[in-house]
UniProtKB/TrEMBL annotation:
GO terms for molecular function: DNA binding. PROSITE patterns: HTH_TETR_2. It comes from Ligilactobacillus ruminis. The lineage of its organism: Bacteria, Bacillati, Bacillota, Bacilli, Lactobacillales. This is TetR family transcriptional regulator. Keywords: DNA-binding. Residues 37-56 bind DNA. InterPro entries: Homeodomain-like_sf, HTH-type_Tx_Regulator, HTH_TetR. The keyword DNA-binding applies. Residues 14-74 form the HTH tetR-type domain. The keyword NAD does not apply. Gene3D superfamilies: Tetracycline Repressor, domain 2. SUPFAM superfamilies: Homeodomain-like (SSF46689).
Length: 194
């Protein structure tokens, strides 16, 4: 899987592709709309329509490429922890120590994905790619009182919401600072947060 991810990054992250993706994100953020044409993107990117279509078939392909490029390093990390735990390291530690820094690297893009009209697509992408990984932590759930369906869905929705709140701040905390908050949010019962 790592070689596929590396191959994806090398294949898709040339200069023109990056310009197109950055221009699309800029336009979505500027206009708070998904009504962005190929012409709009190519004008801002300073590339020809032929260059656009050399790399993408549609604006939807740009969205997919953005999602996959932001997520490539995180998926690589997750593939190193297929069952969630390695050598006694739990899910929260894996996320805190390895994934939060990767999220922070892409915080500006993630802020747009979480706070723009792209958000429903981004959440669908996350659910599709992470629900299996989250369900691998069933052993960490106390399912005597809550069915695993609710525990799993609440876990990843809670996680996505925490990340959205973090990256959407005008000046997000560093991963080291946020790690303490993250641990607290996952270790304190929801009833104590109210």
């Amino acid at each position: 899987m790592y070689n596929e991810l590396k191959s994806f990054q090398e294949k898709h992250m040339n200069k023109s592709v990056k310009k197109i993706m950055d221009s699309y994100l800029y336009l979505v953020d500027l206009h708070n709309s998904l009504e962005i044409s190929v012409s709009d993107i190519t004008n801002v990117a300073g590339v020809s329509r032929a260059t656009f279509y050399n790399h993408f078939n549609s604006v939807g392909d740009v969205i997919s490429c953005i999602e996959e490029s932001v997520d490539a390093k995180i998926l690589e990390c997750i593939n190193n922890h297929p069952n969630g735990v390695t050598k006694g390291i739990g899910i929260i530690d894996v996320i805190s120590n390895e994934i939060l820094p990767l999220i922070y690297e892409n915080r500006e893009i993630l802020k747009i994905l979480y706070t723009s009209p792209l958000q429903p697509y981004w959440i669908d992408y996350l659910k599709a790619n992470y629900s299996k990984w989250v369900s691998s932590f069933k052993s960490e759930y106390d399912c005597r009182t809550v069915p695993s369906y609710y525990a799993e869905n609440l876990t990843y929705l809670f996680f996505f919401s925490i990340i959205e709140l973090w990256v959407s701040k005008p000046v997000p905390e560093t991963p080291a600072e946020f790690m303490k908050i993250f641990h607290s949010l996952f270790s304190v019962p929801i009833s104590q947060l109210l």
